[in-house]
């Protein structure tokens, strides 16, 4: 890669590293018993998260050895085809800037805390790493088929806001949740949101909120289920979706399996 944009890890200030540490300590308290084992294992194996904003070069060493993923620094949101092309090559695009101290609870755009703390631990997991790469390939295809709005919902309700069933009840793996203190509690403990068993077509029909906590979460049984459900060619699914109506973000259908 000859990308000229780089992290410039040496240029972070002490204050910026302190913001990272505050965010990590807050989340570690909240995520014990709420995040899934795979996420917590990824955090433990990356092992560089508690000291301050991680140096992407150090993360690359762990990730590369574990699953062959690497991180590519980007200045902010990148065009869809660039984003998917990176994922398809097992490169995760990450922003470098960190939110200000008065933005600990909410930021409308991804920052390095969301991108790295939220996403990278799951990339240590082989099945999830394969899923993300396949998603990138599928994204390029969906773009060509005019169906990206349907595929984007799958990313939203799995990679960003996914829950996974365990013997002890649902646990979090979605990066948008694990990087939010409030939503980490809300998604599991608040009576308002619906927690619905994952169904691929149901998810791709469901609109989502970008300005508030989610009204519905979709719960997978395990990552193998997610990977298998998304393995087929989506071309016929997209054709079928064109004739199906969207579902509102908080709606419940008669056929939904709503979890307690
Ligand atoms: N199998 C999907 C397709 O053919 C690609 C995909 C894989 C999409 C994994 C999402 C997740 O389009
Ligand atoms: Fe994200």
Order of helices and strands: HHHEHEHHHEEHHEHEHH
Total count of strands: 6
Shape: globular
Radius of gyration: 18 Å
Please report the number of helical segments: 12
Unreliable stretches, pLDDT < 50, 5 or more residues?
none
The biggest beta sheet, please? Answer: 4 strands, mixed
Q: What does the average pLDDT come to?
A: 96
Major sheet strand order: 4-3-6-5
> Span from first to last CA?
47 Å
Q: Hey, roughly how much beta strand do the residues contain? A: 5-15%
User: What ligands can be seen in this structure?
Assistant: phenylalanine, fe (iii) ion
Helix content: 40-55%
Content-based structural category: alpha/beta
Topology record:
Elements: H1 14-31, H2 37-46, H3 56-67, E1 70-73, H4 80-88, E2 91-94, H5 112-123, H6 126-145, H7 148-160, E3 163-164, E4 171-172, H8 175-178, H9 181-189, E5 194-197, H10 200-204, E6 216-220, H11 223-229, H12 235-241
Parallel strand pairs: 1-2, 3-6, 5-6
Antiparallel strand pairs: 3-4
Helix pairs in contact: 2-5, 4-6, 6-7, 6-11
The structure holds phenylalanine and fe (iii) ion (FE).
